[in-house]
Amino acid sequence: MSTQQDYDCVVIGAGVQGSCTAYQLVKQNKKTLLLEQFILPHTRGSSHGQTRIIRKAYEQDFYTRMMEECYRQWTQLQKDAGVQLFRQTGLLVMGPENHGDYQLFKNTLQKNKVPTVILTRDNFKQNIPNVILAEGDGALVDVTAGVLFADRALKAVQGQFQKLGGVIRDNERVMEIKPGSVVKVTTSKGVYQARSVVITAGPWTNRLLAHTGFQLPLEVVKINVCYWREKTPGTYDVKQRFPCFLLTEGAETKEHIYGLPSNEYPGLVKICYHMGAKTDPDYRDLQTDKSDIDILKRYVARCMPGLIPEPAVVESCMYTLTPDRHFVLDYHPNYSNIIIGAGFSGHGFKFGPVIGKLLCELSLGEVPSFDLSPFRIRRFQSKTKSAL
């Protein structure tokens, strides 16, 4: 085991949130260590994969406002790293026209003056001929939305962190966190001391928090990431200006179904169910539930006539869910120099730059640049508990 090393901050978990946090800290001239339990890059958590949707379309104003800043920061990172990180495609939002989430999306976009196109049934058929809009459903396009190149973005932010002198240690599992005015972190390979620690460990968050006598009401689920083959190549291709899409609810389910145009795998369209089955992150693939795939098969058969309604490729990801599906961005309730970023609930990747900035601000004791009341731990009240 190596000798003890001192840092201003240790960030635990090198997914997108931890990497963005570490990058923000090193930009503030803080000596920063970024720890990762697996060898990088890896596909074990929630930040892998080639693409994510980037969008301002949300049910809540606070997310739409945060995304304004996210776009600016992704654009700056793209410039600094010299690599394309996103592509504008628009996001087609569909759902029951006069109620539920669809109306919330529409209201939030209009209230925040996000460039939006409302589609009538006639111009829907004209502009998006290979998608069937259900009777009674409305449709709109968040023009600003698109595809975020996730693997590339994660590599870029880690590269910029290291370029500024940040240290990444992968294949190093945290064995103990000892709170105090200086926090001591013991790993499988070394011992580190820091004035502050940021925990961004995704599905493993509660295992780390157990060292501090605290647990959050988090549920880890396995997501089947499905790719569907085009009957005619190019029909749903990003180059043919096919948009990302989100169905707020449909005949098959009340949960969201989302999709991205054919891009990373030529001829294959990524369409996923925005929920999964409970799993243990260390034994993810023992969870073999395929009920979500059955729902998607029915949806694809009903609404995507140009796709074969059987997934050609199925990959795995994990969501770490909070009860209300909003993030946790807060101080540890008992130790103000331990910061928690968790529960990103399957929609956090695109927020990485702003989440990194907020967690950095918390770790430095600064006033957060956004209102964190939707993300505070106290909202769980009796659902959070101290470990005995």
Beta strand % = 25-35%
Distance between the termini: 30 Å
Roughly how much helix do the residues carry, as a percent range?
10-25%
Q: Which geometry do the CA atoms define?
A: globular
Structural class: alpha+beta
Biggest sheet statistics: 9 strands, mixed
Task: Compose a concise summary of this entry.
The protein has 388 residues and is an alpha+beta fold.
Task: Give a structural overview.
With 388 residues, the protein is of the alpha+beta class. The chain contains eight helices and 22 strands. Strands 5, 6, 7, 14, 15, 16, 17, 18 and 19 form a nine-stranded mixed beta sheet that branches. The C terminus is likely disordered.
List keywords for this structure.
388 residues, alpha+beta, 9-stranded mixed sheet, 8-stranded mixed sheet, 30% strand, globular, disordered C terminus
Question: Could you outline the blueprint of secondary structure elements for this entry?
Answer:
Blueprint: E1 5-12, H1 16-27, E2 32-35, E3 51-54, H2 61-81, E4 86-88, E5 91-96, H3 100-111, E6 116-119, H4 121-127, E7 137-142, E8 146-149, H5 150-163, E9 167-169, E10 174-178, E11 183-187, E12 191-199, H6 205-209, E13 214-215, E14 219-230, E15 244-247, E16 257-260, E17 268-273, E18 277-278, H7 291-303, E19 307-321, E20 328-331, E21 338-342, H8 352-363, E22 385-386
Parallel strand pairs: 1-2, 1-12, 2-9, 5-15, 12-21
Antiparallel strand pairs: 3-8, 4-8, 5-7, 6-7, 10-11, 11-12, 13-22, 14-17, 14-18, 14-19, 15-16, 16-17, 20-21
Helix pairs in contact: 1-5, 1-8, 2-5
